[in-house]
Amino acid sequence: MTVPPPIRAPKPTPLSGEEVVAGTDATVVDFWRFALSNLRMNNARGYLAEFLVAKAVGPAGLRIEWDPYDVLAPDGTTIEIKTSAYLQAWDQYKLSTIQFTGLRSRIWTTEGGLTPTPTYNADVYVFAIQTARTHKEYNPLLASQWRFYVLPRQTVEDLGQDSIGLATLERLAGPSIAYEELSDSIMLQPGKTARVHSTDAKSKTTYTEKASFPA
User: Fold this and answer.
1) How confident is the model over 17-59, as pLDDT tens digits?
2) Three-state SS at 50
3) How far apart are CA 71 and CA 64, in angstroms?
4) Longest Cα–Cα distance in the chain
5) What is the rounded distance in angstroms from the CA atom of residue 208 to the CA atom of residue 118?
């Protein structure tokens, strides 16, 4: 039996925000404003942290949902970004405990489906904390309110865990670093393997099973 070729999804192209939603008086900016104005939301906070890391290293392309990693650096380094915060988009009785989940995940390919076993899929792991402890001071767009920890894949893999807390992270990575230090820290991680990714390698044929967890 001949297997038909997969229906290839097109690669995303950047939007300006001025594109019109046909049949309405709205633009893409209006949609972004509607969907992503609350940057305290778990998913929006994650997107913002990924953006900050991408800006730090200079991304090799746009964010690709379900890729095995979050950011691809120009030298081929794959980066997974995990975020946490003390304050959330909902009412709280106390500040949240800093915890990072989803360290490993299953990879899905068009040809083979989901891999049976979750794996650690990035060269470098960046753990980003939004450090504000009151909503009055909370400003997600202030880079100085973010602190980062960076670990190589081997260190994360040696843990053999799906999640990591702040105490363990500080023990393994040392003190947190500021945004200005992030690029150098990522590029200097041991065991980082630079690769050249072809156009075909970035087509949407390989994905990672991911989920959004409260933090």
Assistant:
1) 999 999 999 999 999 999 999 999 999 999 999 999 999 999 8
2) helix
3) 8
4) 63
5) 9
As a whole number of angstroms, the distance between CA 80 and CA 105 comes to 11
45: CB partners within 8 A, 6+ apart: 39, 83, 85, 130, 140
With 0-12 / 13-18 / 19 or more C-beta atoms within 10 angstroms meaning exposed / middle / buried, residue 186 is buried
Q: Per-residue pLDDT tens for 77-94?
A: 999 999 999 999 999 999
Residues 6+ apart with CB under 8 A from 178: 144, 147, 148
- Give the integer Cα–Cα distance in Å for 69 and 120: 9
Radius of gyration of the chain (CA): 18
Q: How far apart are CA 215 and CA 210, in angstroms?
A: 15
Decide if 118 contacts 160 (C-beta within 8 A): no
Q: Which two tokens stand for residue 168?
A: 């363990």
**3-state secondary structure (DSSP) of residue 124:** strand
Helix (H) or strand (E) holding 159: helix 153-159
Q: What is the pLDDT of residues 112-137, one digit of tens each?
A: 888 999 999 999 999 999 999 999 99
